[in-house]
Amino acid sequence: MLIRPMAADDAHQVLAIYQAGLDTGHASFETTAPDWPAFDTTRLPGHRFVAQDGEIVGWVAVSQVSARPVYRGVVEHSIYISPAAHGQGVGLALLHRLIASTEAAGIWTIQSGVFPENKASLRLHEKAGFRTVGVRERVGRHHGVWRDVVLLERRSPTVG
């Protein structure tokens, strides 16, 4: 499996994997993947990676959490794995590559929000060194149901 920077040519496969995750109902409050221009403008270009095993089988990307200078070292990430590649180490490989790239760029915190029902994602993040910061209870409605979100973060031991 190859982990490499995401390219515009990957758009179709990346967005298809994104939509497959959204279709589970446990990946995001979003229900439809954005088009490529919207995806592209909201993710930092230096920290977007795909896992490729012939086809793309997963991706990870980050967004800036705030334009305020004090938060320049804090990003929020998303990670999505093709259903056919679940349980094969793709997610952990992508998170390790993301951690290396963000630390090299001076980013000290990677955060994310995960639905508590998404046990596989919670286990993955724990393996990658993320910790649970707390739970935002009933933070939003998804398909007419109030949902909680587990807040996760990984603080770099070498940056900051």
Descriptive tags:
160 residues, alpha+beta, Aminopeptidase, seven-stranded mixed β-sheet, 7 strands, globular
Structural topology:
Layout: E1 2-5, H1 11-23, H2 36-42, E2 48-53, E3 55-64, E4 74-81, H3 90-104, E5 109-114, H4 119-127, E6 131-142, E7 145-155
Parallel strand pairs: 4-5
Antiparallel strand pairs: 1-2, 2-3, 3-4, 5-7, 6-7
Q: Radius of gyration over alpha carbons?
A: 15 Å
Number of DSSP helical runs? 4
Low-confidence spans? none
Main sheet summary: 7 strands, mixed
CATH architecture of the domain at 2-111: 3-Layer(aba) Sandwich
For the record, the CATH class of the domain at 2-111 is: Alpha Beta
Strand content: 35-45%
Task: Give the mean pLDDT.
Answer: 96
State the share of residues found in helices, binned by percent: 25-40%
What is the strand arrangement across the widest sheet? 1-2-3-4-5-7-6
Q: Could you say which overall geometry the principal axes of the C-alpha atoms support?
A: globular
> N- to C-terminal separation?
32 Å
Task: Give the CATH topology of the domain at 2-111.
Answer: Aminopeptidase
- Class per helix and strand makeup: alpha+beta
The succession of helices and strands, N to C, reads: EHHEEEHEHEE
CATH H-level superfamily title of the domain at 2-111? Gcn5-related N-acetyltransferase (GNAT)
What would you say this structure looks like, in words?
By secondary structure, the protein is of the alpha+beta class. It has a domain at 2-111: Aminopeptidase. 28% of the residues lie in helices and 36% in strands. It is built from four helices and seven strands; from the N terminus they run E-H-H-E-E-E-H-E-H-E-E. The protein has a seven-stranded mixed sheet. The longest helix has 15 residues, at 90-104.
